[in-house]
Design goal:
By secondary structure, the chain is mainly α. It has a single domain, classed as Non-ribosomal Peptide Synthetase Peptidyl Carrier Protein, Chain A (Orthogonal Bundle). It is globular. It starts with a helix and ends in a 6-residue tail after the last helix.
């Protein structure tokens, strides 16, 4: 599982272009719906065995924080 893998999954699940998925942008700014977020969490669990509970995520969380939470390094 790489940073690029997770970005591609997020883009697929949310319908957002990868270019918009910058590390320091918040989930609120991206306007990701709760349904898309839960769908993305299910895909992370299915594909990578990562277990996150929806309540662990906040709309103020940045993508960098999300990546850190799931153990994926964000390139500099």
């Amino acid at each position: 599982m790489t940073y690029e893998d997770i970005l591609a999954l997020m883009a697929k699940e949310t319908g957002l272009p990868i270019e918009k998925l910058q590390p320091d942008i918040t989930l609120a700014t991206l306007d990701i719906s709760s349904i898309d977020l839960v769908s993305m969490l299910f895909e992370l669990e299915d594909q990578y065995g990562i277990e996150l509970q929806p309540e662990e995520l906040t709309r103020e969380m940045t993508l960098r924080q999300l990546f850190e939470r799931i153990g994926v390094a964000v390139p500099q």
